[in-house]
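Re: your question from the hallway

Yes, I did run it. Sequences:
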Amino acid sequence: MHSKNTKHLEWLKPDNTANFCTMVTTKKFAHIFRLSVELEEEVDPIILDEALQVVLKRIPSFALKLRYGLFWNYMEMAKDKPKVEEDVRNPMVRGNWKLNKHFLFRVRYFNKRISLEVFHALADGTGGMIFLMTLVAEYLRRKHGYEIEESRWILHPDEEPKPEEYEDSYSKVARKQNFKRKSPKAYQAKGTLEEEGYLNIVTGHMPVAAVKTKAKEYDCTVTAFLTAVLMDVFQDVQEREKKRKIRQMPIVINVPVDLRKFYPSKTVSNFFANINIGLDRALGHYSFGEIIEQVKHGMALNITEKRLNNLIAGNIASYQLKVYKVIPMFIKKPFVILGNYMGGEIKSTCTMSNLGNVILPPEMSKYIKGVQAVAGKNFGRVTSCMGVSYQDTMSVSFTRKIKEAEIERLFYTKLVEMGIPVEIESNQKKE
Amino acid sequence: MSYCVNCGVKLAASEEKCPLCNTVVINPNETGQDKKEGAYSPRFEDYSVRKINVKYLVQIILSIIGIGVLVQTLCDFLISFSISWSLYAIGAFGLLVCFVLPVLVKIKSPYIATMIDLVAIALYIYMIALMTDGELWYYEFYLPLHLLSSIYVWCMVIFLRKKRRNYFRAGGASLLFVCLLLILVELLLDVFIVGKVYLIWSLCCAPLLLAIAVLLLIIAARPKLREEMSRRLYMNY
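Structure:
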C-alpha cells in the first residue's frame, strides 16, 4: 500500500477532528457517516474490490488504521487490505473498529448502490465524497473503459498521492484564539430509544430547482432555507412540551462549514468547522419569515474567515495544553467524553450538514443515477440531518436513534406544503 | 408509485408503509410484483461484540480451580497421610459447582436452582461445624438464621419473576427482613452466649429501619403518590 510519495506515511498524528473523534469513541459509539452512489446498473463486487485497492494507493490516508497509544491515539499505515462488503439494512452501527480489522472505513455494495461508511477521524464529508467518487471513477474505468477526468470530486488514480492531500490543514491555517463565547443549553427532542444495533434512516429526494426557487423566494441559500425549515420543525415540537422552562430553551442548529472554500487546502482529511445558528425561544414564537432572517443573519455573521479561524484555533488550543499531553489516555478519555457532552452535545439541537452540489464530468454522469449522504448518530442528540445534491435531485437524509419519526414527518410535510415534492425511502424494518 | 394519504409525500416503491407516520400503503393499481427491493439490503448485521459461551467459560474456570483443589488435596495427603484441612477446599469447590450448576445443566426453574444453592450453603457450613466440633452453634445459631434468610431469598426470587415489579414494596420488605434479622441475631447470640435475652443494639436500629420500611410500603401501595413523585423527580418526565 506504499507509493513513492507516501513512504514516510508509516504513521500519522491525528488532526484536530481525528483527535476528538478517536477520544470520544467507545465500543458502542463512533462518529460515522455514509455516502452512497446509485449506479444505472448492478454493482460488480469483484471489480469494485480491485478498484478499491487502486484508490487506496492514490488516497493512502484512508489506508490508515487506528492504534491506541498510552498518551495518544495515532494512525498507522495498514499492511493488509480491506475487502468490500455486502450492504446491510442497519448501516453505521458497527463502530467497534476491531471488528473491521482496525480499518476506519467500509465500502459496501447492494444492487446498484455503492456505499462508503467513514469514521469521521479519517475525513469529512467532502474528503469522503472525493474518495467515493474516485473509487466509482476507477470502477467505471475497469468496467466500461471510462476515461477518468480529474475534477473537484475526483482524483486521478494514476497519479502519485501528494503530501498536501493528507496534511493537517487546521494547524496550517489556525491563528490564535481571541474570544470564546459561552452558549446556553439548547432544546433537544426526546423519544423512545430504538433497539441497539439499529438506526432509522429516512431519505427525502426532492427537485433541486424547486428548493432553489423557494430559497430564492426568501432571498437565502439552500442550506439556510433547509436550516430554517428544520428550526421551524423543532419550534413546533418544542411548543408541545409541558414545561415552560423547556419551551423557552433556545433552538440551536449545528451547521458544518467546509473550510476549503476559505483556505487553499487540497486535503482529503478533515477540514471543516461547526457553527451554531440559534433561535432565542424565550422571546416567543417565530414566524417562518422571522426564522429565515435569523438563520440568514446568523450565517452571515458566523461564516467569515475570522470567526471560523477563531473556532479552529479554539479547538486546537484545547489539545495543545501541556498538562493534557502528559495525562494517560485511560484517565483523560472519560473527561473528554464528558466534556464533549457538556460542552458540545447538549448545546445544540440538531446538525444540518449540506455537502452541496456534486458535479461530475458528463461522461461519468451517464453511469450515475443518484448520490446520497447520511449523517451518523450523535452521542446525545436523537437525530441529525445531512443533504447532498446531484444533477436535478437533492437528497436530505435524517438519522434517528429513537422510534418516533415526528421531526422528519414535520420537516418533509412542511416542504410538501411549500410546494416542494418529496419522495421518501427508508431502511425501515419489514414485518 | 404511491403517496402517503397522511403526510402527502411520495413513497419509494419499496416502502410498504409510510416511514414517517406508519400509514399502510394501499394502492389498488399496484400488485405485489411492483414492489421493489429498495435502497437497503434486507440483511441485518449482527454488530454485537463477540458473544461469550458462558457454559464453556464456566467449564474452563471450574477445571482450573478443580486442578488446584486436587493438587492441594494431594499435598495434604502426602504431608499428613490423611485428608484433613483440604476438606474445606473440597467443600468450597462443591459449593461453587452447585452455584454454577444451572449453567452446566439446564435447570429452568429458578426456584429449584435457588433451593440447590441454599441447601448447598447449609451443608457446607454443617461440614465446617462437624470439623470444628461446633454442632451446637450450627443448630442453635446458624440454622435459624439460614432458614429466615432462605425465606427472604425465595421471596426475592418470586419478586424478580414478576413482570411488573414494585421496587418500593421490595425495598420495604427487604428493610423489614433486615429488621427481623437484626433482632434474631441478637436474640440468638444472647441465648447462645449468656443464656438470657437482653435486646439492646438491635432495638436501637430496628425502629429506624421499621419507619423507613413502613414509609416505602405506604408509597408502594399508592400508585398516584408514586406518579406524582416521579413527575417531580425527573426533569424530562
